[in-house]
Amino acid sequence: MNSLLKRNLLIFFRDRSSVFFSLLAVFIILGLYILFLGDLIVDSMENVPGARFLIDSWIMAGLLAVTPVTTSLGAMGTIILDKKYGQYKDFAVAPMNRAAITAGYAVSGFIISVIMTLITFILAEIYIVIYGGELLPLKAVLKVLGLILFNTAFSSIMMFYLVSWFRSVGAYSAACNVVGTLIGFLTGIYIPIGNLPEAVQTVIKVFPPSHMAVLFRRIMMERAESITFAGAPAEMLEKFRLEMGIVFKFGDTILSPGVSLLYVLFFLALFLILSLFRFAKKAA
Prior knowledge:
Elements (H helix, E strand, L loop, with lengths): L1 H13 L1 H7 L1 H20 L7 H25 L1 H9 L1 H7 L4 H33 L7 H26 L5 H18 L11 H9 L1 H13 L1 H7 L5 H11 L4 E2 L2 E2 L2 H27 L1
Antiparallel strand pairs: 1-2
């Protein structure tokens, strides 16, 4: 499996177009934010202390939630190409356990996604500091790193299961375009959730990656919130969190970070079971 793992990593990172398109959604979100979304939101918070730090932290937390989704999907493209050019059949008849072949693709996708997300995190922190914000304290950094590993595991398993259904490069490319286009909306990055219709808010709240965005925002925005809302009523902070998707509310109940974590964990287990079932069905 190690040789297959090394091969998949080299194929991905040597193909600059694969690296670029796996990060395309990130580039689009960041570009829109830098060009007008950031100024638009910050200007609406005129004379609010630390507004830029607050909103920069908000958008960068969202990026960390979506990067594992798009990069793991991009990394799984090796499976489709191997099927197209026949390498997958060569591996199947080679003296290699089928489980090792499957694990080689899945683990390589996970590693690629971790690397790309860590790079995004470093660049995000640099961006925040350049525009007057502060670096995260060590404790918060460790929490973010833990979430990155958890989110990447979830995203990789979800994308691996999705890609397992594709039989052509065209179908895979279409899926990449759809995911890259919708992920920013479904995680409440392009438009804050509080500005959307109730039905759309519900869709976002049940979308698992949006809960990862909530978890990243709670950690990365903590310091900025303490500056911006120092001395403000608790109700004002709660309203801001609800409007910006920093917390989710169902009925009269505000979900705790633990509930969001368990929600994503449920889907991680679900996609893992589905992937194992699909693998066992193929092997039969």
